[in-house]
Amino acid sequence: MIEENENLKNWEGSIFNAIKDVADIDSQKKTWLGKDPHYISSFSEVINILYDDFDFEQYVKYYEQVKGKDALYILFSELDEKINEYDASGKTDEQILEDPPWIEITQKAKEISRMLDNRTSLLSS
Hints:
Elements: H1 2-23, H2 25-32, H3 43-53, H4 56-67, H5 71-85, H6 93-98, H7 100-116
Helix pairs in contact: 1-3, 1-7, 4-5, 5-7
């Protein structure tokens, strides 16, 4: 049981960090456009980390099973929906950073980040 709880905490922590990366448009402007001397990233990397590495869609489903459809679940679902609907095809990272739908996504992620700042673990509480 302890190992399972630790795995959940690690999964949660990874999801939360990935959401913060989605929320941080200032960091995106530096890392996606090669202006950070120590770190390089891209739109694809940020999304792949959230979905492929940490399976955000599965986390949203699991969160609903454990906590129900509370305010945070609604925000998770809205973020998931916005990202899935976002069409980045044919756009450069620079164009994405200026795209109003992407800015909406970062704002939704910021809203989640603010809620998460006061919590250390959601699934185990």
